[in-house]
Amino acid sequence: MRVLAIDPAVRNTGYAILEGDPRKPTVLGYDVINIPARIPQSAALSAIRTHLVNLIKKHQPDEVAVEGIIFVQSHKTAISMGAARAAALIAAADHGLSVYEYSPKKVKMAVVGKGTADKAQVAFMVRALLGLAETPPSDAADALAIGLAHLQASDPLRAKLLDRRLV
What we know:
This protein is of the alpha/beta class. It has a single domain, classed as Ribonuclease H-like superfamily/Ribonuclease H (Nucleotidyltransferase, domain 5). Helices cover about 45% and strands about 20% of the residues. The chain has helices spanning about 40-60, 75-95, 105-110, 120-130, 140-155, and strands at about 1-5, 10-20, 25-35, 65, 100, 165. The protein has a six-stranded mixed β-sheet with strand order 3-2-1-4-5-6, with helices on both faces. The longest helix is centred in the first third of the chain and has 19 residues, at about 40-60. The protein is globular, with a radius of gyration of 15 Å.
């Protein structure tokens, strides 16, 4: 199975493409879609969607995994995050891909074993589990973690540990 994993945000959307067995996945690529603050939000959302569509065309994933909605203090932040998430969901839907969502807590449990792990712990474990030469940028590490959580949830032996919800 090949999965496109997405950590959506208007200015820094992390993504990763993983493939294979949940115990020994292969990383096909990862990065962060950086959108400068001077770019209007509508153009940023369009750029995110376009970038993800290009990734879908290039890597032909079987499924998409995305971080679920999280609680935030600011309504403005929540709306912005929701908009970035919508851009990602539309890119996947336009290509007929099933989308699965995972809460940040479930992702941290899958990768670190502790639902309250911080970003540095997640990045460290992603690097160790995937045998990466360097620690990925924070948003890309989060996307890699989402991809790992999805592969684990797809494994019948581990599926009960993660709540795998189709969006």
